Amino acid sequence: MHPSAAAGQGPCRPLPTILTGLIIGTVLGFILQRGRFCITGALRDLWLSRSWRWFTAFLLAIAVQAVGVAVLTSAGSLTPEIPTLSVVATVVGSFLFGVGIVLAGGCSIGNALVQTSLLSWQGWIALVFQVLGVGAAAWFLLIRPRQRRRAERAASRVPTTV
């Protein structure tokens, strides 16, 4: 048995954890689909009809997530690594995200997750591009910079002979 399996960590996670994730994911997916939760729709309603209903729900979701991250961080269960991004990268990324929402006719939750579960071909296309986008972002913003830092630290530890 792998040591991490005995500790309940690593690739050999206990079955209750997997089942809990499946149950929570199924319930959340059902709620999101039935409730027609969409960030794009919330912003559209706020802009066009001055309705704060969905936007308030969106802000509440952000608040709950922020409290959850703060609690997990203070408990030592989570150590977030915050990458530093330039303002230009943030503006360009936000613009591209907005263009994607307009072209797709909705947000990633509505298109990639809910529509995929309903066997919509548009959902599958959105899911493929979402995975590619997240993979590219992870590579360029997290993995590659971390590999560079590790290589630099390893190079600085190499003793020089005189």
UniProtKB/TrEMBL annotation:
Belongs to the TsuA/YedE (TC 9.B.102) family. InterPro entries: Sulf_transp_TsuA/YedE. This is YeeE/YedE family protein. The keyword Transmembrane helix applies. The keyword Transmembrane applies. Keywords: Cell inner membrane, Cell membrane, Membrane, Transmembrane, Transmembrane helix, Transport. Its main location: membrane. It is a multi-pass membrane protein. The chain crosses the membrane at residues 12-32, 52-72, 84-104, 124-143. Pfam families: Sulf_transp. GO terms for cellular component: plasma membrane. The lineage of its organism: Bacteria, Bacillati, Actinomycetota, Actinomycetes, Actinomycetales. It is found in: Cell inner membrane.
